[in-house]
Amino acid sequence: MRYSVSRLRVTGSAALMLTAAFAINAAAGQVTGGTATFDSVGQGGNPFERGAWGNARNGNAWAQYELPTPTLVRSIYIKSAGTDITSSGSIIDVKVKLSDGWHSVYVLKDKVINRGFSGGARGPQTGPIRVNLGNVEISGVRLDMSGNGWFAAEDVRLETP
After folding, report:
1. How is residue 152 annotated by DSSP?
2. What are residue 144's phi and psi, to 5 degrees?
3. Cβ within 8 Å of residue 37, ≥6 positions away
4. Is-contact 158 76, C-beta < 8 A?
5. What is the pLDDT of residue 41?
6. Residue 145 has pLDDT above 50, yes or no
7. Residue 98: beta bridge partners?
8. What is the per-residue pLDDT for 31?
9. Please, which residues bridge with residue 35 across strands?
10. From CA 5, how far away is CA 98, in angstroms rounded?
11. CA nearest neighbour of 71 among 132, 137, 133, 153
């Protein structure tokens, strides 16, 4: 079963049904049903539900996923993220939203995550990563990226215990 919620406000007994459906989906091992937002118009699908997103903007970018209810998350898996020109000087800052706001949980500098470069450019990169949180209740995840080139993110999963 897959549930998707986007720009929807649910109240009353319907909210209880939505919460139950969301919990069932979370119990399957991957959290879905949140709302994805981006700093700029991109191409592709939703990276937080196994899709891919890319933009056409140099300098910096962000991609964010907010959950309808706080959810216990074990880890964040990122198949691919970062810039496409050079990893030199680039930063990928993985943040989670706790009850008191956004907090960095992993920062990758001067590397991209499993990302191809454009036009023969090169630079250090790492394979897909998994950021272990140790079972933390979060209400969102955000990738803040900076560097040279266009940015992308693919297959960013919130994994449950």
Report:
1. E
2. -100, 125
3. 63, 64, 65, 66
4. yes
5. 67
6. yes
7. 101
8. 81
9. 66
10. 20
11. 137
- The helix (run of H) or strand (run of E) holding residue 20 is helix 12-27
Rounded distance, CA 13 to CA 27, Å? 21
C-alpha span between 45 and 59 (Å, rounded):
22
Digit-coded pLDDT (tens) for 114-133:
988 887 777 888 999 999 99
- Distance separating alpha carbons of residues 58 and 154, to the nearest angstrom: 18
Angle at 129 between CA 123 and CA 5, to 5 degrees: 115
- What letter does residue 43 receive in the DSSP assignment? E
Token couple for 98: 């706790």
Q: pLDDT by residue (tens digit) across 6-42?
A: 333 333 333 333 333 344 344 457 787 889 998 876 6
User: Pick from 65, 50, 129, 135: which is nearest to 97 by CA?
Assistant: 65
Q: Which residues pair with 80 in a beta bridge?
A: 154
Q: Which tokens sit at 121? A: 């450019």
